[in-house]
């Protein structure tokens, strides 16, 4: 499911399976990205490098703007993840191909396209601590705060 931000023209994948929202370094045109200590993991266990964060202001045509600190990561395209959707009360309606803003009641149509991008998590599938950390997710949860 894809939608385009009116202010930047970026096409975002809406991925409810991604724990956090990410953007590729090319989006911010940063030539000297320095790797950060935070590592993300694809569904297949592959490590995804990160390079800090970038505060973006998005206009998703929902009659309000969304300011959010996206993690800069080695991904193929920008992803709006569950953290963003939950914070702003946005619901994905796959049956009707739309995104619903629970604050305003406004709905926008989105483009349904299959994506090869896998689920992005903060925890590797083969981690010996996975079971314990899944029981206490607040230990590793990244709490991004929207800036109003």
Structure description:
A five-stranded mixed sheet has the order 3-6-5-4-11. The chain has a single domain, classed as Cathepsin D, subunit A, domain 1, CATH 2.40.70. The longest helix has 7 residues, at about 80-90. A hairpin with a 5-residue loop joins strand 5 (about 45-60) and strand 6. It has about 150 residues and is mostly beta strands. It starts with a strand and ends in a 13-residue tail after the last helix. It has three helices and eleven strands.
Helix content, binned percent = 10-25%
Q: Please tell me what the overall shape is.
A: globular
Q: Please, how many helices?
A: 3
Class from secondary-structure proportions: mainly beta
Rg estimate, integer Å? 15 Å
CATH architecture: Beta Barrel
Query: What low-confidence regions span 5 or more consecutive residues with pLDDT below 50?
Result: none
The end-to-end distance, rounded to whole angstroms, is 26 Å
- How much of the sequence is in beta strands? 25-35%
Q: What name is given to the CATH topology?
A: Cathepsin D, subunit A, domain 1
GO molecular function: aspartic-type endopeptidase activity
Pfam families: RVP
Protein name: Peptidase A2 domain-containing protein
InterPro entries: Aspartic_peptidase_AS, Peptidase_A2_cat, Peptidase_aspartic_dom_sf, Retropepsins, RP_Saci-like
